[in-house]
Predict the structure.
Amino acid sequence: MTSEPAAESGSQHSGVVPDPALLAAPQDEWKRVHIISPLVRGWIALVAIIFFAGRDWFESLLSGEDAVGLPGDGGARLPWAIAIITGVVLLVAAGFLLSWYFTRYQVTEQHVKVNSGIIFRQNRQARLDRVQAIDVVQPFLARIFGLAELKFEVADAGESAVKLAFLKLKDAQQLRATILARAAGVTIDPEHPDEIQEAPEREVLALTPRRVFGAAALSGTTIFLILALVAVIVLAVLARTGALLAIVIPVGLAVVGGYWSVINTGFNFRAAISPDGIRIRYGLLDTRTQTVPPGRVQAVGIIQSPLWRIKGWYKVTVNVAGYGAAASGESQARATILPVGTRDEVLQILALVLPDPGTENPVDVFTAGIRGRDNDGGFVTSPRRARPIAPLAWRRNGFKVTDTALLVRSGAWWRQLAVVPHERTQSLAVHQGPLARRFGVADVILHTTPGPVSPRVVQTGQDAAWTLFHEQARRAADARRRSGPEQWMRPVEEPQRVSMPQPPTYSALDRPDEAPNDNR
Amino acid sequence: MRKEPIDPAGLDWTRVSPKYLTVQLIAWAVEALIYLVVTSVPLVLMLTDVWPGYPAWLAWGLPAVVLVLELWRVILLPRQIRSIGYAERDEDLLVRRGIFFQRTMVVPYGRMQYVDVAVGPLERAFGLCTVKLHTASPGTNAQLPGLPTEEGARLREQLSERGEAKLAGL
């Protein structure tokens, strides 16, 4: 309650339904989210209440008599039931409406502010130039109403710093453009502050539905399905009981869920480049547009599961400070910037997140990283003496340093490559256990923000590990001194490009490639 | 301090206070006593004929195993504490620890988000404190236990000052 005066000062517009046309208007304009939002947010609660209440009523109607054992006949009870249900529904609806009424937001030159809470008021204020990512999400129901949710992420790895649910799609996009423009430090024409154009974008790649279904068919879910089928058949032969259904149903649900998450997050996937950073869109029922401004990617991971080797497909994930480490399907999907792609597409995406690969020959180096072994591309692998502790992987475990990034390669079956730009290294560690000491090897661990990528140079030679440790610490420090400003379009020493950038590519990308890449 | 093979050359490691060994020994004694008492309960019950059916080998074996493990721990303790060290460089702080599982960490000043100084009751009695460094990565688990209080305060000031000077966001 302590913050009530602050809320009061902002409530001078409270009687007026906000006019969406004013969204990009000057400051000191407190706005509310769309009036339908409480319905969209509360619909699950409503549906649940109506479902349970309706089922009870329906059952008692079917049984005719007092199945539940309450006194009185069905006819006399019915009005009471309806009254109670209506009361509960009204209470829930009132709760959502009040929460809607008391939630207001404002975007100023420097900050985005949100006031919320009915009894316990909360005023939140986030600096625009600390933005790590902005998502515009449309859950299925919101999509029907043409609404969208805006998520503003800062680096604290928890919940979204600011969540505005729901705005009209166009308003959400306009707000995103405003936030990005102000965060970027674009000089805004003072006479027309509301004419902020969304930064233009150029599409870099799009996935066909065929590719997404193929990726699902060859994903780890299929391996799981085959193993589960074998287990079920063996059990059926051995046990001959009807209890098998108890296994089949959860397995079936897990399999369907696994396929669904691959398809739903990969469907209609498009990646684009704009001055405001990388923009990706995806989704079948729920759609999501994510924008990651330049310099916000902390680490990139490229993985290939064994079955994907048939097609030469890879998946690219990133660590972005705002996305956090939660293992939920949603946060994994958010950290995925290429759900399935050929080598060329992977290199294309890498060129977006790491415009300067820092090597003469990026194509060879990254190809060696994602599918090579031994010393191709200049990688330093585990020494031969480490063979007894890593019979297959010793030829693949390795690292390579370019002028701008460290590439860490590992995994013989599940191939992985992690790329960490030097200026994004948080801290470093060398670990050595007794067994590793016996074989004269050590691990070098790079600490990065929470996310799916955890770079670790596995079992590299002891001396190489120490050299890497010290040189990497020095390189990270050097790179940080040179790193760009947080406001990526603020005119600094040299005039910054404000026009549409060409999507960067690694120059030799159109070289012929021996892997099958006509399988889109 | 003794050089381990994993140590990088040309670095002057600062050791933690020798008083930290006393702190750890007291903590160890209390902990070991609790474990021993708890695991000896069946033995006492058996010897006092409250629970005569209890297998004798288990009744004697459990506290014996605990005793051996605790003795092993206390033998290692001095070496473990000697292995904790840190070194301040121009750009970063190095922290090392461990004898079997050795780990050395380098934390750049510019990456430090905040510095914690924690003091427990036992540490306070001996004038010690624990300094903890945090970066944006949860993997950075840099802890320096057993620093004298003045040294901890100096280190904290030094670290935050250097961190501010070299601040580069994320």
Summary: Residues 85-165 of chain B form a domain with the PH-domain like fold (CATH 2.30.29.30). The radius of gyration of chain B is 21 Å. Chain B has a mean pLDDT of 86.
